Amino acid sequence: MAAEKRGVAILGIFVADLAFRASRMPGIGETIAGSGFKMGPGGKGSNQAVAAARAGAAVTFISKIGRDDFGAVAKATWAREGIAARVAEAADQPTGAAYIFVNDRTGENAIIVVSGAAGTIGAADVETAGDAIRGSAVFVTQLEQPVPAARRGLEIAREAGVVTVFNPAPAEPFDEALYALCDYVTPNESEAAMLTGLPVATIDDARRAGDLFLKKGVGTALITLGEQGALLHGGGRSVHIPVFKAGPVVETAGAGDAFNGGFAAAIARGDDPVAAARFGSAVAGISVTRAGTAPSMPTLAEVEALLAQG
Question: Which domain holds residue 268?
Answer without folding.
Answer: 9-308
